Each structure stands twice: as C-alpha cells, then as structure tokens.
Amino acid sequence: MTTTVSWVDEAWQQVEAKIARTSRRIGSGFPHASHGGTYDLAAPYWWTAGFWPGLLWLLYRESGTPEYRQIAEACEEQLDEVIKQFDRLDHDMGFMWTLTSVARYRLLGEEASRRRGLLAASLLMGRYNVKGRYIRAWNPWRENEDNSGVAIIDCLMNLPLLFWASQVTGDPRFSHVAIEHADTVLNHFIRPDGSVYHIVCFDSATGEHTGYRGGQGYAEQSAWSRGAAWAVYGLALCARHTGEARFLEAAKRCAHFFIANLPEDYVPHWDFRLPAGVPRYRDSSAGACAACGLLQLADLVAPEEAGLYRSAGERILHALYTHYGAWDDPDEEGLLLHGTSNYPENSNIDVPLIYGDYYFVEGLAKLKGRSEAFW
Q1: What strand order describes the sheet that includes 209-213?
Q2: Model pLDDT for residues 341-366, shown as the tens digit of each residue
Q3: Could you report the per-residue pLDDT of 118-136, keeping only the tens digit for each?
Q4: Which of 182, 207, 239, 263 is most exposed, with minimal Cβ within 10 Å?
Q5: 27: left (phi over 0), alpha (psi -120 to 50) or beta
Q6: Could you tell me the domains of the chain?
C-alpha cells in the first residue's frame, strides 16, 4: 500500500477536531475506557495515566496549541503525588512517565520533567530481579498474594524509559537492566512461530523459570493480540536503542506472526487463537500499537525489507481510520471503536480505549514524517 497523503492529513484533521472538543471536558483527567460515549476517568496511579497527556503532546508538537500543553503539564504534575506513594507503582512507570515527563523534556527541555523521568526510571530499575533477570510486573492484588516472580510481555514498552535515562545521565546501569530484561523476553516469552506468552513466572528467590499463565489472552498457549503488539513495538524499540541484531530479528519474527494472522480487514481479534464458540471481538488498540511497531521496524531494516512492514502498518491504520473511527459521532469521546481491554475478566470489551487512541495518533504522526517518538 502506498501512503495516500490526503487520507493521512484528513485523519489528522479529524483527530484535531475531536480532541479540541473532548479536551474541554476531560481536561487534566485520566481517561481509560469510553462507556456510553464518555471516557471514564481513572485514578492518576492507574497504568494508563500517560496516554492522554501523551496524545496531547503529539498534537501540540504539530500545532503548538497552548491548551494541549497546559493540560498535558497539569496531568504530569498530578503524578508527583503518585510517585511519592511509590508502593502503589509497578512496571508500568514507563507508560506513565515516558508519555508525560520524557515527552515534555524532549519537546521543551524542561528540567523538572527530566528529574521526574529519572526518578521514575530509578524506581522502575529497582523492580529488577537479579536472579531471574526480569523486571517484576505487578504488586499483590490482594492480601497475602505473592506475585514477586511474575513478568509480563507488556513491560517491553516500559524499557524505553530506562534507555532514555542512560542516554541523559551517561549512566549505563539503566540500559543494563533494560537489555537483560529484553534478553529474558527472547529466552522465555517468544515462541518459535513468533507468538508470545503474556505472563511468565519465575521463582523470585532462585530465578528459576516455573511456568506460564494465560493472563489477558484466552489461554496459556493462545496468542493475545495486544501482547503480540507489545512484542512487535517493544522489541523494535530495543533494537533502535541498542543496535543489537538479536532484538531486530525477534521483532521481525513477532511482526511476521502478527501480519500473517490478521483478518481480511487488517484489524486483529483480541486473541489470534480462539476456539469455536468464543466471541471474536476486535481489539483496535492492538492494531494501532502494532502499526506503530511495524512503522518503526520499517525504519530499522534494510530498504528491500522495509516495504513489507511499512505497508502492513499503513494498512492497519487506514483500516482503523476508515472502519473503526468515531469521527461522525459527536456523542462519542473515543477516537477508535471496538477495543478489548481484558476479555477473561469481562472488563472493557468492545469499547474505545485511550491507549488505542494514543497509538493511532502516534501512527498517523509517523506517516506524516515524524519518525522520532517519545519512546
């Protein structure tokens, strides 16, 4: 598929017009999922807190609209209280501070944002398990639960915070941790066919690998599509930050699996391996994230390979814009319809999701020529 500048520009204008309206209500809140046309606002410590300000920074970068900057800065400042209560934070600090503090520092050189980002990176690095060579995922969800041995595929997208911290400080320890966690992903998360496990378990005392869990996928051996998207984009970013061929090859393997399993309209179902009788809801957020990863891959591989990844990324974004956008519905705050957050827990199914909106806008920005990203 060859990029048609007109549709990308048209899509960007639709995004701008909708965010100009919705930002007046959402303000410096933290939207997560849209129900009945209105985004629920989550607590600032929730893992999705960075996506709304990150989306606003993407728009601000192009338009310079002061209101977008003001809202994004107000979101970032609210996270100061969150970081003080650091015992509630988990591996998703990368999602939260990369798209707030790191984005602001990259765009404006704001020193306070640099310090915030480095503090978050230090706390993220503190979750590293030396024996198992992984970054611990969650804290206990309930009393007496021990999940200190749990690592998840999503964490790949948090590693850029550590790479950035090494870049701005000259201290390689952050990158060491990111690389070792990424190597654990290569060794334990990625199957030979390029599909991935969502959750991998270790003995947190010895580091021994002990098994897998299905997590947000249908089953332990299924192929959760957003997990596949985290792998495509996260490994591509590891390759960009390190220049290491093993990460690039792994990203390509995951990308080939993702592309080969897309349905005819190029927007994935919530899991690529669903048995008969299980609802085949789409997950537009998985498509948007994977599209960004595919476009990143296209910038990293040899020219003769780039067309495959760029074409697939464009096709996904075009399909999302054409068939999954809520452009003509003034009563819907979400940009993309048909996201699936967590089917096994019956949570936020077939609704707009803020991270889907964010990655869609980032993907459009890439097609507009913005090859750099906040990651």
Answers
A1: 150-152, 199-202, 209-213
A2: 999 999 999 999 999 999 999 999 99
A3: 999 999 999 999 999 999 9
A4: 263
A5: left
A6: 5-367 (1.50.10.10)
